[in-house]
Amino acid sequence: MAPRPQPDRETAPAVQRLRLQYAKRGRLRFSSARDFQRALERALRRAGIPMAYSAGFSPHPKISYANASPTGVASEAEYVEIGVTEACDPEAVRAALDAALPPGLDVVDAVEARTPDFANRLEASLWRVELPGVSAPDAARAVAALLAAEEVLVDRMTKNGRRTFDARGAVIRASSSGEAADESAFDPAASDCAILTLVVRHGTPSVRPDDVLSALRRVADLVPPIPPRVTRLAQGPLDEAGTSVNDPFAPDRAG
Amino acid sequence: MAGANLKVGGCGERWVSSRSMTSPSIDRSSLRPHEPGDSVFDRLERLLPLITKPIQYIGGEVNAVTKSWSEAEVRWALMYPDAYEVGAPNQGVQILYEVINERDDALAERTYAVWPDLEALMREHGVPQFTVDGHRAVGDFDLLGLSFSTELGYTNMLTALDLAGIPLLAVERDESHPVVVAGGHAAFNPEPIADFVDAAVLGDGEEAVLLITDIVRDWKRAGRPGGREGLLLELARTGSVYVPRFYDVDHLEDGRIKRVAPNRPDVPWRVRKHTLMDLDEWAYPKNPLVPLAETVHERMSVEIFRGCTRGCRFCQAGMITRPVRERSITSIAEIVENGLQRTGYEEVGLLSLSSADHSEIADIARNLADRYEDSQTSLSLPSTRVDAFNVDLANELSRNGRRSGLTFAPEGGSERMRKVINKQVTEEDLIRTVTTAYAGGWRQVKLYFMCGLPTETDDDVLQIATLAREVIRAGREATGRRDIRCTVSIGGFVPKPHTPFQWAGQLDHETTDARLRKLRDAIRSDREYGKSIGLRYHDGKPGIVEGLLSRGDRRVGRVILQAWRDGARFDGWSEHFDFDRWMSAAATALADDVVDVDWFTTRERQRTEVLPWDHLDSGLDVEWLWEDWQDALDEVAVDDCRWTPCFDCGVCDQMDTEIQVGPTGVVDLPMPGVGPRNPVLADSTSA
User: Fold this and answer.
1) What is the CATH number of domain B299-401+619-687?
2) H or E stretch at B426
3) Closest listed residue to residue B490, CA positions, set B466, B459, B513, B508
4) Pairing mode, if any, of strands B271-272 and B257-262?
5) Cβ–Cβ of A225/B480 closer than 8 Å?
6) pLDDT for B96-127, tens place per residue?
7) Residue ranges of the domains in chain A?
8) ∠ CA B323-B324-B330 to the nearest 5 degrees?
9) Which architecture, in CATH terms, is B52-272?
10) Residue B409's Cα: distance from chain center in Å?
11) B5 vs chain A: nearest CA distance in angstroms?
12) Which residues of B touch A103 (CB under 8 A)?
């Protein structure tokens, strides 16, 4: 007997693509990229978004994910693109999806995709790293040592085993400041809270904020006594001065 | 073993390895005074970057609720004593969570077993066992309800009690501690955990939790008369809640139980199970929880009926959940539609002990398949009998989807064995069924069997290989293809309380393992068909511990405590289970006793022996159970009372219940109506 033919059901084509910016806030920063994928697919169904599906025995909704932040890292700027079978109002989709997702996974912006190559536009990220328990002068000394180095080798476990790579080259900007401790910090040791601001270029292997922290440990023996709180504030094309990133939706808005 | 083949998961993201961190040893409770009901999340949060899969501890499920602490008079912490990924989808806990939270005067939150990595950090940093809803300390609640699907969760209960600051021994608790209540199938013999729980509830939980909530509320309103013991006496006197401390157990010199008797006036000699009638009145879950973390069941589950009277003699679930009570086709369709809208799940599971036995199953399958044909929603019937009708059903439910694998459970390898266990399936039935499946486009058939059944010989188990060969042969013939497969999955049989096999001697693990090796060799050595047959089995050791915990009495509590102190955790997980630890714990704990592990497991019991659970009434008439055990030995079959006259198992008379089955006469359901124009569409917002 021949295998069953593919189902002859029509799969409606995508007539529009929408790009969404979402934030991963508070305790939801502990969700992984896969956790978010499942949550998003279910929220799309609950919100009644007319999703386009791939054909075949196990159709999948047309969703592209770009450059998700690591588990445990908060973010104000994660991006995803969806294909829909009927023209939608981006703001209405944003609001409906935001309402359907759990608080802490917040859809903050949406545009209709009018340009190609979105993923390539995400050249670099702007990170904020809170270091409770680390004094501002200590952090400043460590940052200065990092910037003074040409190369700082760090290693990290990846899917392909332990890899050693340079964490310095990708760091375009690094600065530190001291601020009053985060209100949730209640250790006396945490009354100090240095804050790092980093602009890190994306690449392979990708240099993540924890790699930069490993580099700070290597060059200046900076060891935070409490797990740092890291937030991706933005990602997008590097600005002309090369010190920050621009809005990756700008070409779509202009188009 | 639930979840035995799951992995604990890969290394999560770590910011700083715990070894490189200096751990602050500050007594945090002194820095931030703890008010009952306060969230401990800020203390937990800084541990989360250091552990695997932190997502399972943060809560935030779609449809979860966190109610005001001060406005609730009765507060339940509900625990499924396994990892979140196994516990979160549990239907029982989800239903009770909803039933309690619907009351204005009560709240319920959920808690799960924490993995050893977090347990160690919680101990180091003084973070108590917490709920995932409000991250409240479990010790602050009025009640801690535990749902035991399996006895292998007992050690996880001890971890949770200890982390919650609740004394492990019930008699050492005072009024400030939660009342610890056990439920679930394992609670039909709670004697091994009698020292650790304050109470146990047998049977359906929906009405039982409401009854207990009322009693606790009234007791609190009245100024807690009689203290903790006063409350427990109130509960015990209902005859519906078992309070072990109010029963004394006397032993004979040879170790057998002499008698179990109440030690307080008005406490009844026997405690009855609860039976929920008219399932349509209890259309739960109405707001199914959708976890963020990945779990073992990623689907919307609907219980299409409760109970089973097929009469499989090994099956505790089928014996203790009688009679059959069906949900109507209309109610099922409403629950499915509501659940899909509220969850966004892509799969619906139609659950029960034997789903194809629903009197309206063909209409249910056809109607649901019609309704969701165009919606990317798949339907599944997780438990299927060996019956060609089941293949038709599965075909209907997978009209558009992939036909990967179908599962059948002949349970016994030989015709003789299947008569002993009352699984009325002939080899002809099985071959016809799987041939239909292969011809219908299914490429893989999974067959479940048990090893270690009463009266079993090597030959009975070796016939599994014969059967599997015949399945492949017939499948190749029917399809003309050689790429069809058959996976044989074997579980070790553990005799359970309240079944006809409650008197049987359990097969020792050495013999179990030897039989399975012979079976493996028989399949491997088959050049013609062996490569098409997969074999999955576990060794017999975990079954012995499960057997000890299933049919043990109060003396086994000492073994559990010792094993837990020696490090036993997550005993249902093969990577955590340690047989030698259990055996040495048993040797230590039972050193001064005349009984040992073999006495509780491999020893056959006589009719006259008082069994540890005899005072707990599942409705089954012990004379009927004994006759059914004798019928098993004589290889005599018993039919299903849904389509033959009552054979007096005793449940309906004893519990004042009745079989509730359709058909209702409803054949076609209306298709869901077309709603208002979708507001996300471009032309609807511009209008």
Assistant:
1) 3.30.750.210
2) none
3) B513
4) unpaired
5) no
6) 999 999 999 999 999 999 999 999 999 999 99
7) 16-113, 122-236
8) 145
9) 3-Layer(aba) Sandwich (3.40)
10) 18
11) 21
12) 60
